[in-house]
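Most newcomers find our protein records easier to grasp once they have seen one. A learned vocabulary of local backbone shapes supplies the integers on the structure line. An example says more than a description, so a record of this kind follows:
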Amino acid sequence: MSMSNTAILIGAAAAVFTAAAHDMSWTEDLERAWATKAKECRLGADDLGLINRHATFNGRIEEVGLVQGIYAPPYFSRDFKVVVLVGRKHVKCTDWRWTPNKLTREGVSENWKVTSELYPIAGKRGGAMEVTVENIGKEAKPLTITYDMVGTLGASDNWGFNHPACAGDREQGVYRIRSGAPAEAAFASTLDDGVNQVVLPPLAPGEKRKCAFFFALGAPGEAERIVKAAKGDPRWDV
């Protein structure tokens, strides 16, 4: 993690703790103090991390559907990635808005306008990415969404001198990465159980479809519980 990234995450954490100490709405406080739009920003993609006192990860601003790197002491994955494709293509990010607790990204690929909202899961070592796809074309078109999680894991009080390794498996709608270290990453989505590509019914012009993807890093069993609980939220029963 770069010094600039470390500095901004420390500052973000300070903002969270200060708001909590004064019984303020920490979300509103972060929105006021930290909100940054693409046109106003002079920082790089590496500096726009998200944090919630349990984990930090980077959404990146090159693509709408990308998460890269996750650190959740004592667990870490430097090469961790969650990737979401629309129409089997990476969607380039053309506009975004960032605070330390949410990154909103927008982009267009062919006839699809894609918006994602990435944020940490409250009180957990994990995150969620809500993706909304709108058909901006003139004809109805089937929607294909492809998604995956990859990465090698480690667990140590000193992240700098470890060589993580892993193996993956998929069961009951949750994809897990496990390693020789006492660490586990888990991933789930609202689209389907145990599948990394779904073809949805055609969307009419102007019609939208919303879905969500959940990921977590923690002790064996912990990460799976986090994503299952997030996926089980009643608001996704649509």
